[in-house]
Structures are given as structure tokens and as C-alpha cells.
Amino acid sequence: MAEVGEIIEGCRLPVLRRNQDNEDEWPLAEILSVKDISGRKLFYVHYIDFNKRLDEWVTHERLDLKKIQFPKKEAKTPTKNGLPGSRPGSPEREVKRKVEVVSPATPVPSETAPASVFPQNGSARRAVAAQPGRKRKSNCLGTDEDSQDSSDGIPSAPRMTGSLVSDRSHDDIVTRMKNIECIELGRHRLKPWYFSPYPQELTTLPVLYLCEFCLKYGRSLKCLQRHLTKCDLRHPPGNEIYRKGTISFFEIDGRKNKSYSQNLCLLAKCFLDHKTLYYDTDPFLFYVMTEYDCKGFHIVGYFSKEKESTEDYNVACILTLPPYQRRGYGKLLIEFSYELSKVEGKTGTPEKPLSDLGLLSYRSYWSQTILEILMGLKSESGERPQITINEISEITSIKKEDVISTLQYLNLINYYKVGAGRGRQVCAGLQSACPTRADRPHPPPLSEDIVDGHERAMLKRLLRIDSKCLHFTPKDWSKRGKW
Predict the structure, then answer these.
(1) Are 215 and 269 spatial neighbours (Cβ–Cβ below 8 Å)?
(2) How many CB atoms lie within 10 A of CB 261?
(3) Across the strands, what pairs with 25?
(4) Long-range contacts of 405-414 (CB under 8 A, 24+ apart)
(5) Which position among 324, 366, 368, 411 has the lowest Cβ density within 10 Å, counted as fewest Cβ atoms?
(6) From CA 476, how far away is CA 483, in angstroms rounded?
(7) Of 351, 380, 383, 401, which is the active-site residue?
């Protein structure tokens, strides 16, 4: 059996943890970092095939040293100039690494230039730290300029899946580990899920204190109290464009309110993983949802969107803060983003890939929205009601591709052969783009299970957007003068 002192970064072994049913389990985990505090060793572990938000520091008592797997170093290889050298050690994986297309995050360990915004996209992007005299590239939202194997002297962007122990820079490991212990925001204390590039000296504090109205951070409760005597904000900066009951939405321009936008992004990065960090918030709008009481408008969640999107994205990042999750606020944010798209006269879609929680929320929203339309159709002259996929997209502002994928997920879309070598997708009882009524087949109607499940879900969905309470005038951002 191995000794505690032999454990190094890259080792894999079972680690004791409690699951959701409060039962002990021993999932395989990888040691990402080791530290010594007052002679006691602590190990930062990542549970294989589990979300990174579950990563944690553990003591050696929770490690099963009998089943430890040590990393194996690769054979030496010649360097570029032909001289002998060696590659950094990387463990041979017994578990095949999953490959995902995600947006890597880049650390910003700087006090003077905090991170600004980090939309997600299906291709890797990297933010480069601001340097004197260096201008931001005009194609900063491009997709192919960055490679995992960087040879320009700048550390490669870290992977979002797999192990940290690889031939990457030290910053790779740093960004994959939670660096903030706890955040106090108003009456809530939040435990971050992921790394966020707050100034390094703040990462050693037991609690990071944030003003819940301007989101400025401080190192102590005294600093926060001193700040509150000067801060006159009681709601996010920007225009209030929606209010119903205690729920309000504020539209914030990333150019006009840069400090708030950057602070919002730093906070959001604690709970969002697949994000790329940017310094420039100018191209983005932020829509912050708040809950009102006698003390002010308290932030519940937000989403951001590009002022100009060539891909019809109506959401870049979206987050409901942990204290407000599982209460219907996530779907409310999504519904609000589509209400804005309706006013703009466009169809929209969120940037991909979605996080695990984001995918669940969007799939649920799309399903409920589409089923709500299908179940509300009325038959004419005794015939089964029909609607095209394009019509569903126009009514809901959900992009056609998302409508089709949702119908496939609900098993409501079929492929019918209508001619020699030709076919057509048709949703149950509903038709997608047939030229004449005579061509429209009549598949079975919605099943009772789908109808019952939808009705139960809608009974629980008490929070809805009222379009009458929305006061929003879209702008033409193609004219740069408005930025």
C-alpha cells in the first residue's frame, strides 16, 4: 500500500464522498494539487466523469491508498532543434478521455485588468491579457485562430474536460481549481463552483464580500460597510425595461457601465464553466433580473447577448444564482430572452455548447412552449389541426433547428417517404412544410403521457413573462455610433 507522502499530482484512486441520497460512495478521482497546512496534507481531487463543481479538498483519511494508480511518464523525445529532451510527464489513461467541443477559460491573474465577459461558442477561443500598446484584435470573436498546441510562447487555453495533469502551463492547473472559498452577497453566502479570476490576494481570504447592488468586491466586512456608506445604488445601473410584481429586468450596456459589467462577469464565472474571458464588454448587453423589497432590487440572475450576432444568438451567457435556483427563475430568464426576440422580429438561439444545467433548462422550456402551442390548436371543419415547423418558429421566436430537435426529443417528429428517394419530416398531428393539404399525412395525436406530463409541469410554472409589462425598443447596433 502506498504512503501518503508518495501521493503526487496525477495519481488516481477512489475517494470517499457522500452522494445525493446521503450514502457513502467511492468514485474514482484524480489528484490535481497537493498542499501542506501546518504539517497536514490536503489533496484537491476531481471525480472522474463528475462535473467540476464537485471538486474539493480532502484529507488523506478519505483516500483509498490500496487502489492508487500512479502517473507514468512518457519516453524522452528530441526537441525542435534536434537535441535530446523530455516532454512533461503525463499519466497514461486507463479511462478513455471524453472529447467535447467547448470554450476554454483563460485566467486573468491581474488586479488592474479584471475579466469582462465570456460568451460560449462551439469553438475554442482565448483571451490574451491586455498589454501596453497592444490593441484588441478585430476578429476577437473568431473561432480558429487559437490552437491547443500553442507555439507562440503564450500558454495554451486549458481544456474543460479530462485531467489537469498534462503538458500544459501552470496556469492550466490554476484555472481548473476553485480559488474562492466563499462569497457574501447581501443576505446570502455562496460557495463557488468554478475558478474566477479575482485578484490573487483575495483568493486566500475565507470570505469575499460583494456589494449586492454594484457588485464591487472587498477583502473584509469593514471594507464592505465602508463602501455601503458611499454606494448610492439600490438597483443595477441601466434602464428598467420590465416590472411585474416584485420582478424587474434591467438592461445594461457593457460600454456605458463597464465596471458593473466586469464585476458581474467575475461573479458569474464562479458558477459558469464553459466560458471564455474577455476584457471588452462593449459588444454586449446584460439583462439583470432582480427581486424587489424595501431594501432595494436584489440580483437573482442575468443573461448577456451580443449587440450584433451573425449567428442569431439571443443569449451568450445565462445564470440564475444558486440561492434562487429550482424556483422557476431560470425559465423566466429564458422566456424573457425570447420576448425580446419577438419584439425584435427575429428568431433566436443560445450560444452552444450549453452547460449541463443550461441544456436541461432550455430543453424543458422549448418542450413546454411548443407543447403549449400544439395543445392550443383548434380543429377546423372536423379535421385534425395542423401547423408547420416554420409557423411554430415564428410564433415562439425559437430558431427552427431548436424546434426540430425538441420535437425529436419528444418523439413527435417522423420521416415520411413521399416520393422516389424523397422524404419529409412531420410532427405528430402537425405537418412541416407540405405544399398542399392533400399531401399532408395524419400521424397519431399527442399521447396521454405527454399531455399529462405537460399539464403537471405547467401547474408548477407559476412565474411567467407578461409582454404587456415589457417596455423595450430595439436598437440597430449595426450603426457603430450607437455603441
Answers:
(1) no
(2) 27
(3) 17
(4) 406/363, 406/366, 406/367, 406/370, 407/370, 409/363, 409/367, 410/367, 410/370, 410/371, 410/450, 412/374, 412/446, 412/450, 414/443
(5) 411
(6) 10
(7) 351
Cis amide linkage into residue 353, ω under 30° from 0: yes
pTM score: 0.75
Residue 168 · residue 156 · CB < 8 Å = yes
- Written as nine digits, the cell of 236 is 443595477
Q: Strand runs (DSSP E) across 89-198, as ranges?
A: 183-185, 188-190
* Locus of grid cell 451567457: 317
Q: Distance between CA atoms of 459 and 391, rounded to whole angstroms? A: 26
What distance in Å separates the CA atoms of residue 366 and residue 80, rounded to the nearest whole number? 52
Listed range (76-85, 97-106, 244-253, 261-270) with the worst mean pLDDT? 97-106
Is 30 among the catalytic positions? Answer: no
Tens digits of residue pLDDT in 34-54: 999 888 999 999 999 999 999
Cross-strand bridge partners of residue 42: 35, 59
- How far apart CA 418 and CA 413 sit, in angstroms, is 15
